[in-house]
């Protein structure tokens, strides 16, 4: 779940700017968040599914990444319909959550974390020390699974109890100690590279990347999809604002 997906470089949107992808996803999320009706999320879902081949991520890999969110959205919609007695309302909530989840997953799954951190620093002027530290932490997250397996094997070699419940707290404490040691070494390495001084004027970007016209077209296309889906719902008389009962 934590390993980044590598998009096909031949896909049209594989090399789109990370901030453009996030902005396009946010537009659809906001459009789906402010309404509770079945038509708007249905049209948005169709557009999102049609955009999957454009980002270059295999549909099976993307579905596997999105499966927990899909199960949660379907469950929430089902229980809303069951408890309220409004089947149409439950379906609308489930579709709405599916559209919001898929928009975020389609956008984020194809973004390289390094490109995203560079974009945040270059265009949004995010704090360099915090951004690079968060990037390093994200890159180290997959190592926790290997650390956990190593700890389990070490306990088994020593003949200690390795049950999932009884050994959980002991293994968690060991993993926390290892994470603190790794974070300390990483902090020292970052300070040695000049990140201790957040206001250093001499730091530059190794990979500057401008926002191109293609990136703006992606955001405009997302706005068009949100506007058309909302307009179709309003014309059909099903559009309903979130706060209006």
Word description of this protein:
This protein is mainly alpha-helical. The chain contains eight helices and no strands. It has helices spanning 18-33, 39-55, 59-84, 87-109, 113-123, 128-157, 168-192, 213-236.
Q: Kindly report the oligomeric state of this protein.
A: single chain
Radius of gyration: 22 Å
SS summary, helix count: 8
- Helicity, in percent? over 70%
Indicate the overall shape.
globular
**Kindly, what is the distance between the CA atoms of the first and last residues, rounded to a whole number of angstroms?**
38 Å
Which segments are poorly predicted (pLDDT under 50) over 5 or more consecutive residues? none
What profile does the largest beta sheet have? none
Order of helices and strands: HHHHHHHH
Q: Say how many strands there are.
A: 0
> What is the average per-residue confidence, as pLDDT, rounded to a whole number?
83
Going by helix content, strand content and strand pairing, the class is mainly alpha
Proportion of β residues? under 5%
